[in-house]
Amino acid sequence: MLEIQEQETANSAIPQAQDTHPLVELTHVEKHFGHLHVLKDINLTVNKGEVLVVVGPSGSGKSTMCRTINRLETIDSGDIRIDGNPLPQEGKELAALRAEVGMVFQSFNLFANKTILENVTLAPIKVRHMPKDEAENLAMDLLARVGVDSQAEKMPAQLSGGQQQRVAIARALAMKPKVMLFDEPTSALDPEMVNEVLDVMTELAHEGMTMICVTHEMGFARNVADRVVFMADGKILESGTPDEFFEHPKTDRAKDFLSKIL
Ligand code: ADP
Ligand code: MG
């Protein structure tokens, strides 16, 4: 009975609630900085709705890998696809790609001379050609979602680090990205502000956002990740469920890494 049901579901013409096609695909990606080989045969697929957490020692290539996905870094060889499409080289297509792949960095990178509201409306108006009032409505909704709508008229420097990082998340979401990349979004924050940012990320994950998160927050990795990838020396050494990675790491590098941070 169960088998028949599954088959009927699979053959159904009605779109499934859980449509899990690959959104981000890296195949045989190689990258050097001069003589330094920073990405070595990286193969990675992230499906729609999946939350991938990337961990690993400093210098292992985590940031570089993230930056190649929206082409802030070029690659030497291999292939990167977003929703089936190869990364565009330049121009309008590249701007459109950057809109589809939202990125939140360790340093909040807000425009210091623009208000919080302007920070969020700028790209939708410029890149998506959204009318100003529509962009402002969207921005206020997103700022409310991350809990900083009361700060909309302030300048970034008037906000705490945790608030600024939540604005940075709202700003990325304003472009309606298909996938969100987070590169150590809480590493520069005072400890008491870490959770307010992780809470927003957790909520996004539960809403079905596809996410790639580089983080040292192992609680987040355990509780929110669908899959954990461990990188060292430019290679992906392990990829598995949080339980597999934390309870049964396979490589000595991962065991050593975990012994130092847990
Ligand atoms: P992680 O994020 O895991 O700490 P990174 O991707 O930042 O690692 O760095 C991987 C390696 O590449 C490091 O050895 C780093 O020093 C080097 N690297 C990163 N960016 C550059 C760059 N723009 N030029 C030269 N070397 C770089
Ligand atoms: Mg890094």
TrEMBL record:
EC number of the protein: 7.4.2.1
Taxonomic lineage from the root: Bacteria, Bacillati, Actinomycetota, Actinomycetes, Bifidobacteriales
Similarity-based family: Belongs to the ABC transporter superfamily.
SUPFAM superfamilies (UniProt xref): P-loop containing nucleoside triphosphate hydrolases (SSF52540)
Record-level GO cellular component terms: plasma membrane
Top-level division of the source organism's lineage: Bacteria
Protein name: ABC-type polar-amino-acid transporter
Keyword Transport: yes
Residue stretches making up the ABC transporter domain: 24-258
